[in-house]
Amino acid sequence: MDVREFYAQIDKADDDFKAVSVDLYKIFRDTYYLQYIFSDLSKKAAEIEDGEKRERFESVLSYLSERFYEISEECYKLSAEIDNVREYDL
User: Fold this and answer.
1) Whether the Cβ atoms of residue 86 and residue 18 lie closer than 8 Å to each other
2) What does 9-23 look like in DSSP terms, one character per residue?
3) What is the DSSP letter of 48?
4) pLDDT in tens, 31-42
5) Among the listed residues 40, 30, 41, the one whose alpha carbon sits nearest the alpha carbon of residue 68
């Protein structure tokens, strides 16, 4: 392997890291938005007159909202970590 091929592989790896970071950021943005939607729906579930149904809807929607928030935060952290590695280590 010559030097040009070696650096070409490094550039390709860097491009791949950047693509993963961008994808993780998109997942962060989309899951954060879904978290907002489920949170809002959970609040609107209070309007359901049947107490048992209302409780089930609120429980499920709150759970989904919390999970999407956790997923969005993890994706954001991973994206930021990859960006830091690319900027400072490569």
Assistant:
1) yes
2) HHHHHHHHHHHHHHH
3) -
4) 999 998 988 888
5) 30
